[in-house]
Structures are given as C-alpha cells and as structure tokens.
Design a protein that fits this description.
With about 180 residues, this protein is mostly helical. The chain has 11 helices and no strands.
Length: about 180
C-alpha cells in the first residue's frame, strides 16, 4: 500500500476527537516545515498552525494537502507522527493491517503460550512420572549395590539433599525400618 492510501485509510482515526492534541499537531507541522526535505513551506505551516481554526479542520486540511502532494509527503507525515506520538502511530488502523501475520508463518509468541498452557498440575504429574521412572530404574538396576530400603530411596539424591543431611536421614530411616 502506498502512504497516500494508508493516510486516506487512517484519516478518520486521526481526526476523531481527542486522538491528537494541539501540541502534537503543532510539533508535526513544525517538523514537516523544518526538517529536510522540507515538506511544508512557511506559509503552509502557518496556515496549519493557525490557532483561530479548529484543530479538526486544521488536521483534516493538512492530511488532504499531504495526499495531494504525493507519497513522499505522506511518508514524512508518518515519520513525524511516529516521532511525536509513537503510541498513536502504533494504534493506526493501517499499521494493524500491516502487522497481521502471514497465515503460513509460525507465530513464536503464540507457540510459546501454547506449550505452556497446561498449568502446574500437568507439570507436577510429568515430574512425578519422571521421578518415579528414575526411582524404578535405580532400584531395579542389578549393578547398584544398595543395602536397605532407605538407601534405595535417598541414595540417588546427593544433589537435592546435602551430603550431611542425607546421611542423617538415611540413618534415621534405617533405624525406623529395623524397628
């Protein structure tokens, strides 16, 4: 889409009440007047900054004037709008159309949420399953020489429980299992 068509599409959004205040419009007009390439002449800038006319009228006239001048002038208006009112620039209807993703493209943000939408119960179930399989594999392994039931349970967790605490727990569990 050309910038003139985009500006025509965004005109109602920009001229609706309380979208742009007078200060922002003045900054945009001054930027279009002072920044190279000069889009508005001094006379045109004075016309669009005239406080006697209503803001809606000045803004509508400015947008129509830029559309008549061509695509480069409209592009510079969008650049000035982005610099002076970035939030409004991001909310423009033409920007939302440009941001719509290609249906064949994978949206990584959406994919990230799709993988993480299961919740804590699902995580605990998976973790319990993995821990159970690890415990089963450890206890049924014929190469491990484990004496006593507590050693089977706590013997594989030196990382989780400190060595000193693990030894005390194993002694306590062995003592309980004898009684």
């Amino acid at each position: 889409q050309s910038y003139c068509h985009r500006l025509q599409h965004d005109m109602y959004f920009l001229t609706s009440t309380s979208r742009l205040n007078e200060q922002v419009v003045d900054k945009i007009v001054l930027q279009l007047n002072r920044v190279y390439p000069q889009i508005l002449t001094n006379e045109e800038a004075e016309k669009f900054r005239n406080p006697k006319a209503s803001l809606h009228t000045r803004l509508s006239d400015l947008l129509k004037h830029l559309q008549k001048k061509g695509d480069r002038h409209c592009q510079e208006f969008y650049r000035a709008l982005q610099i002076n009112a970035e939030q409004l620039f991001n909310d423009l209807p033409s920007r939302k159309i440009l941001k719509t993703p290609d249906p064949t493209e994978i949206d990584t943000d959406k994919e990230q949420y799709m993988l993480n939408d299961r919740g804590p119960v699902f995580f605990l179930a998976c973790f319990s399953m993995a821990a159970g399989l690890a415990l089963f594999w450890y206890c049924c392994n014929s190469e491990t020489q484990v004496i006593g039931r507590p050693r089977r349970i706590l013997g594989f967790s030196p990382i989780i429980i400190g060595r000193h605490v693990r030894n005390i727990c194993m002694l306590y569990l062995e003592d309980i299992s004898r009684n």
